[in-house]
Amino acid sequence: MREAGSQSTPSRRTAPQPSSRGAKAAADIEQYTHILAPFVNSAGGLADSAAVPAFIAVLPKFSSTLSRFLVSTVLGVSSQAALSQFMGRGGVDVLSDWMLQAMEEDTEQASNLLVDILTTLKTLPVTKAFVQSTKSAKVIGALRKHDSADVRKMAREVVAVWMKAMPATSSKATSAKPAAPGPAPAAGRLSHPAPSTAQPAPKRPKLTQVMTMLQQCNGV
């Protein structure tokens, strides 16, 4: 028993330590953005077509799901010329391998990565020859039956976009016929092209914005 008048010693609380997961995420972000820095422009996309071979060469270093989000974002805001180089040099095959690995993981983060990569693939300037030769076509086809509704939806959209590109590419090269000449415009009047009905591509966040979002999601 405690003696009368004695005071108990208050228990001490240890100061909260930073999450090891958050610290690792912060280190990953810093490491991978340092690797990407030489290849990107101020908008966060690939600087130019000449940067593509070296960019593809460093992709094996991006082994975590977190790091692969950064790569997908860079591609999503890159120019069509840079993306054509990326396709021609086998870069899409790397993305296909990443998608296959993500398919084996039953996590929300892996599903989100699949959606992000599919969104990037949807913007590629594909041709009939590319669609017929790339192994990513089979991977995307399989993703139409993925457990995630978001993944299924985006995979179907990619397939639809790529299928539209195939006949358009082949018809220009083989079966295009010269259009019959229309009536000449009246003197003193200029003809105006019909307004485009194409929908603008969705804006992708800059690399710095993605870094901030990833830090927030991982509690950094």
Q: Summary?
A:
The chain has helices spanning 20-36, 52-58, 65-76, 80-88, 91-104, 108-121, 128-133, 136-143, 149-173, 207-217. By secondary structure, the chain is an all-alpha fold.
Structure write-up:
- This protein has helices at residues 20-36, 52-58, 65-76, 80-88, 91-104, 108-121, 128-133, 136-143, 149-173, 207-217.
- The two termini are 47 Å apart.
- The protein has 220 residues and is mostly helical.
Record field, number of beta strands: 0
Oligomer: single chain
Strand portion: under 5%
Low-confidence stretches: 8-18, 189-202, 213-220
Molecular shape: globular
Distance between the termini: 47 Å
Please state the average pLDDT score.
78
Descriptors:
globular; 10 helices; disordered C terminus
Write the layout of secondary structure elements.
Blueprint: H1 20-36, H2 52-58, H3 65-76, H4 80-88, H5 91-104, H6 108-121, H7 128-133, H8 136-143, H9 149-173, H10 207-217
